[in-house]
Here is the input.
Amino acid sequence: MRQSELFAKTIREAPRDEMSRNAIWLTRAGYVHKEMAGVYSYLPLGLRVIKKIEQIVREAMNRIGGQEVFLSALHPKENWEKTGRWQTMTDLYKIEDESDRELALGATHEEIITPLMATHINSYQDLPFSAYQFQTKFRHELRAKSGLLRGREFIMKDLYSFHRDQTDLDNFYKKVGESYREIFQTVGIGEQTIYTLASGGTFSPYSHEFQTLTPAGEDQIHICAKCHTAINDEIIAKHPTCPKCGGAERTVQTGIEVGNTFQLGDKFSVPFELNYRDETGKMKPVIMGCYGLGISRLMGAIVEVTADEQGLAWPIAVAPFRAHLLSLGSDKDTAVQTQATNIYNQLTKAGIEVLWDDRVVATGVKFTEADLLGLPYRLVVSARTVEKNLVEVKKRTVDEIKLIPSQKLCALIG
Ligand code: ATP
Ligand code: MG
Here is the structure.
């Protein structure tokens, strides 16, 4: 894409009403636009990041057999009354339509998917399976101050699994944990993201969270000095010593919960009568698990971990474009223009996504914006490089600049 055609502009000054690093950089770089506290619109570059993350997660979910669905965002009140959460879920958005009918804006989807599955599942032969979606969730979060990390409207991937018994759930549950680990590795924050024990609920002693360790996090994570088992602060009182090795020494770090896995047992199948017939003809409640992953929060978490003093610095797998091509000098310099056009076409043809800064603006502006936008490779062509058909290649996160022949570009950055 040519940058001259991109409507989203960068902003020189940090927005006054943003405190978090992710919101400041993403706003300044023209990736998102804040509508109100906790509510953001995604501009072309920001949406490309969201779509990259979604696709990585989609492929991971498909690999473990998940079937993609898209559930409704408007929820009937009756469903939420049936589970009692109309009253107890304090951050549920409740709305009323013109016929005075009360509705909820989907904050999570157990209340939709469980009754839906009750119309499809009859026998043990229908089990197991799992279904997932990407959707906007609405929650009336009181503290929506952390940019994409805590939205009132945010994108989540939610997966639900359906089993005949606990053993089958346990097997699948483990697979999801492994799949999540791969996802966080692929998007570039695997090293900073740790598997953490959290409070369980009625059906299992623990749930599990994936916590990305950064000072921007809201959660306190206690990490055993001996075996590195991590526990969320909220359950720590039950565990004066490490539940795995018995160690008493711990360090505390702050983390962002980017994903979680939860055993639901029959908590939702009972109220919605989601039952199956076993081999002997006996009716039994379906055993469920649910697995959340915050897509927009993950985008914010990646920024918290990777941005530096100059701006964003995307890992390749989630960058909106892999390369940022800067053509310097006047647009009348036909030699530079021709070289830039050739490189642009060559990369595009090779399937390498490139943003071409073809604007007629000062060189300093181009360099500053390239750092702000944070694409993994910066490619510069100028009067200096054109004669020998060379390109200056610089990785966003490395200082070194390499001069390489144009025709070797694809091999180097592809
Ligand atoms: P938290 O403890 O941070 O409020 P949660 O326990 O409410 O999270 P879930 O309801 O299980 O989270 O949602 C699943 C995933 O959705 C979370 O792991 C997180 O990545 C993401 N998520 C939850 N709330 C928000 C929010 N307000 N904004 C952005 N992402 C969120
Ligand atoms: Mg919450």
Notes: The longest strand covers residues 250-265. DSSP finds eleven helices and 21 strands in the chain. The mean pLDDT is 96.
